[in-house]
Amino acid sequence: MTDKTMTADEAVSRLQSGMTLGIGGWGSRRKPMELVRALLRTGITDLTVVSYGGPDVGMLAAAGRLRALVAPFVTLDSIPLEPHYRAARESGAFALTEIDEAMFMWGLHAAANRLPFLPVRAGLGSDVMRVNPGLRTVTSPYDDGETFVAVPALRLDAALVHVNRADRQGNGQYLGPDPYFDDLFCEAADAAYVSCERVVGTAEFAKEGPPQSLLLKRHVVTGVVEAPGGAHFTSCAPDYGRDEDAQRAYATTPWPEFAAKYLDGRTT
Amino acid sequence: MTATRAEYCVIACAEAWRDAGEILASPMGLIPSVGARLARLTFAPDLLLTDGEAMIVDAEGTVEGWLPYRQHLALVTGGRRHVMMGASQIDRYGNQNISCIGDWERPRRQLLGVRGAPVNTLNNPTSYWVPKHSRRVFVEKVDMVCGVGYDHAAGARHHRIPRVVSDLGVFDFATPDHSMRLASLHPGVSVEQVTEATGFPLSLPSEVPYTREPTAQELKLIREVLDPAGARAREVAV
């Protein structure tokens, strides 16, 4: 069977400027920061990022790599407002497609199911419709006749996600309390790069957690990157919690100064 | 025992879940969280509570269920939830903004983003908690409609905003045009104080009641069980 292991630098070498990238995790939780760091070391730019945003978005915005962002929020959780994202938005540095959390999820579901859209009872009446004039509505063909928003598929050129364990073939296991939407990101993407705390033999999965912790299936995974601490400074429960000191340093240090250390992997 | 302002706020938030039945209480902010747990321990024993992450817990924190984000979103659209969200801005019809201040294209201050406010307000009852009532929050017109108010909801079948609780009082939309009404004042607050701190004309009933007193048992629960460290006073000073 195909051995999909590669380094973070090899994974991002498959990406190109102008791509649409989905980034897994949620806020400042289980973000694939090792892959983001590798991405920042390349010259890749002009990206459209699709994310339940955290420091992944803040860093790419601070480094000027974003052409566009699709997100329902950007937060560091324990620091509610992401300072680098805010600065970039307030200077008009990139285009924003701001949609609701549920609309975002159904956009990924649509992409994963090869559908052009899925109807949701969300968005109508809100300014999500005003700031996204391209959003269409659809009327139920049944007797209720209700009008819904038709959330367009969020198809991705590539997805970047981080999990606790993976095998060399691309099966991925999460051991924390929430899968977030990482499997959906992989299914919605043409290529998916999965970093993990530890590469294990397939037989070891059963010792780590129950079968339902096997979140990612290898047929939607392109590359596996072993990256211990690869979500740092975001959380990767139960392997580690959020490093609040490092996150505070990130939030309060001018980006070029922080990046000078962080991009080499010296995080604190 | 004299209740503090923060404790009246806890009671006012808790009352949002009275008679709610077997639904999820989703409080955002410390005082609504204490309120939801108080409701569960007293007059709304069937409530579901979350630990703020992926677990459904009882008032003592014992896990009784799993609710990761994707299941939480299904629960929202199923309607069996009453969320109490924050609001950076709210207007007379209950439109709420947590996205940005100023022009959306180039905001003066970028905030969180719309989060789940659009889906919440069209699917399950959505109340709001504002710890510092001011004209900056209670505005004539919000800069970005995240949570949908009555004038924008166009009679959407599951849209309902039961109440807004602030550090000054409780507000509802029980008026013919669903504009915001002062429902009760927290003891020690005057009508003038509220209207002065509100950036639009409030509907005022001829006689404004006071937010009810906590019972001795409720005060004991708040002070000794739910918030013994007194964190509530940091959200609302006396």
Structure write-up:
- Chain A: Keywords: Transferase.
- Chain A: This is CoA transferase subunit A.
- The complex is a heterodimer of chains A (268) and B (238).
- Chain A is an alpha/beta fold.
- Chain A has a single domain (6-112, 153-262), classed as Glutaconate Coenzyme A-transferase.
- In chain A, 28% of the residues lie in helices and 24% in strands.
- Chain A has helices spanning 8-13, 33-41, 55-62, 83-90, 101-112, 128-131, 182-187, 205-208, 244-252, 255-262, and strands at residues 20-23, 47-51, 66-71, 95-98, 117-120, 136-139, 147-152, 156-166, 172-173, 189-199, 214-216, 223-226.
- In chain A, strands 1, 2, 3, 4, 8, 9, 10, 11 and 12 form a 9-stranded mixed sheet that branches. A 3-stranded antiparallel sheet of chain A has the order 5-7-6.
- In chain A, helix 3 crosses helix 4.
- The mean pLDDT of chain A is 97.
- By secondary structure, chain B is α/β, with parallel strands linked by helices.
- Chain B has one domain (5-235): Glutaconate Coenzyme A-transferase (3-Layer(aba) Sandwich), CATH 3.40.1080.
- Helices cover 27% and strands 19% of the residues of chain B.
- Chain B contains 8 helices and 13 strands.
- In chain B, the strands form 3 sheets. Chain B has a 9-stranded mixed sheet, sandwiched between helices. In chain B, strands 6-7 form a two-stranded antiparallel ribbon. Chain B has a two-stranded antiparallel sheet with strand order 8-9.
- In chain B, a hairpin with a 2-residue loop joins strand 11 and strand 12 (169-172).
- In chain B, helix 1 packs across helix 2 (30-41).
- The longest helix of chain B has 12 residues, at 30-41.
- Chain B is globular, with a radius of gyration of 17 Å.
- The two termini of chain B are 15 Å apart.
- The A-B interface holds A 26, 53, 71-75, 80-81, 85-86, 89-90, 92, 98-103, 105, 120-128, 130-131, 146, 177-181 and B 53-55, 66, 68-70, 73, 76-77, 99-100, 104-119, 121-123, 144-148, 152-154, 156-159.
